Amino acid sequence: MPYVYIVVVFFILACILYLFELAWIWGGLAQYSSNEEPDFETPVSVIIAARDEEENLKEHLEIWLSQHHYSYEVIVVNDCSDDNTEYILAEYQRKYPHLQVINLRESKVFKGGKKYAITLGIKGAQFERLIFTDADCVPASPYWLGFMSAQFDESKKIVLGFGQYFKTKGILNYLIRMDTVQTAIQYLGLASRGKPYMGVGRNLGYTKEIFLEASGFKGHQHIKWGDDDLFINQVATVNNTTICAQPEATTYSISKDNFRAWYNQKRRHMSTSVKYRWKTTFLIGIKPLRIISYYSLLIIGLNYPDLKISFLISALILYLAHAFIFIVLKKKIGTIENAGIFPLTELILFLINFLIYISTWLKKPTKWT
Question: What structural domains does the chain harbor?
Answer without folding.
Answer: 37-183+196-255 (3.90.550.10)
